Description:
The chain folds into two domains: about 25-90, Nuclear Transport Factor 2, Chain: A (Roll); about 95-265, no CATH class. Helices cover about 45% and strands about 25% of the residues. By secondary structure, it is an alpha+beta fold.
Amino acid sequence: MKKRIKIIGIILLSVLLLISLGCKDKEVKKVKKKARKYLRETYDKEFVIKEVRYIEANKSWELTCAPQDDKNIEFKLRTGGGIWGQNVNDGYANEILSERCTQYYKPILKDIFDVKIYLWSNMDTDLKVDYKNLPSFKEIITSGSDSTYVNIFIYIFENVVSPPERKREFLKNVMELLEYMRGQNLKWGQITIRIYEEEFYEDKDIEYILEETNFFHKGSRKLEYNAMEYESYRTYGLGINDDEFFEIETIEELEKELKKTSKEFLRE
Length: 268
């Protein structure tokens, strides 16, 4: 009798599990349909859904999406739960505009710095933009630089902090960039510079490593080391926040923001 009850219990649990999975599958299809419709109507182009994740903590959905014509451009779309409800929040416009911001500043920084630099940036603006025809970064700052925010992240794989003359020249470069950005009349800006051990990276394909790890933000099985280990060879950092962006006036003030770092604990 007990064996019979146990078998019936297993069958009931299996049926309930199948019903639950079927309901969840229907929800996933519904969410994906809603996301595609929203993206198509917002940007006037087709998108693919690469991954769907349900976040139990806040009862919301997070989808990894990409435009049909360039599936390498990934962004997150979120909807549902207590945070988003029936609304949809997506990062496509910010992803595109930030990349255009990066491409805008690349030649400028190349002229300013006398060492090889690698950079990425992100930006935002209070301006109303046409999502079906996203503007260039130049168009944004021409229309409303005082409504625009810019964060620039610079990676350097050479020794720029010694001897003292070399460090001063580097700080002059940073000051020139700071003055250039302030001259653009931005609402505010931030500059983050990371300096890595030259000896470790001198025989490495830095561009490939940064591309594979998204500037040390994700892992890759194609590389010799993991992202954290590559990051562990950072030796100095310099950060200018949105307040300091307007306050720093001298090389001496700027030098105070140059800090020695130790990331060796990240190594395996």
